[in-house]
Amino acid sequence: MLWERKFTTFEFPGAQDTFVSAINSSGTIAGSYTTNDGAPHRFLRSANGAFTAIQGPDGQNVTLRAINNAGSTAGIYYGPSGAIGFIRSADGAFTTFSFQTSFISIAGLNSAGDVAGCFFNDSDAQSFVRTANGSVTLFSAASSGSTCPTGVNDYGVIVGYFTDPDLTVYHGYVRTPDGTITSIDVPGAGHGAYGGTYPQGINGAGTIAGWYADAAGASHGFLRPANGALRTFDAPNAGTADGQGTNPNAINSIGVITG
What range defines the domain where residue 173 resides? Predict the structure, then answer.
């Protein structure tokens, strides 16, 4: 099942563009769409194709970045004091948190309610894990440059990327709950500006889905099982020029990828 390449496409009804951010084990997808006036909106899409529009606790426009198997979602919205992170339960209740900064990126939400993400500290991105009880652990995957998670599974294993000191070339990483970090570089990833490897999600089996940018600037998907064996792929009709290609951004427990 993991390597079967079956694609399902969809659009939010009446949308100009539709984007997806995350998928859980029941096939519920969190994403966004734009209307003809360019305004962004957020949604959940169940496995049967039903859509639910999502707003912030006071009707704010939000960014959805993660969904767990209980149907809770995580993301950000902006208040008077800057970026605010949130967890929205399946019944619509919000829990919010902030790092008193203008930018927060939410990367993943696991079934225990742990959130992984990053925020900007001066010019670099600082990574964090916030548990369901509100405790926060900060970490970095490199001694210099920026580090930002992109996913966390139910065992607390985090994936993400970090930059070289010049902030241009990207490398993937895996971080286990004890803090051990292993770097990931897909063969064929470019070494020029913004080239490199970008893991985007990890499931309970430890399989990572993501993409890499080649020397020409085109992106390609990859899968990395827990044993480290890498496999690359391209979606049907994906472009091969700079800025085009295949960009997976989430994987669920049975190996279904969305992007």
Answer: 17-258
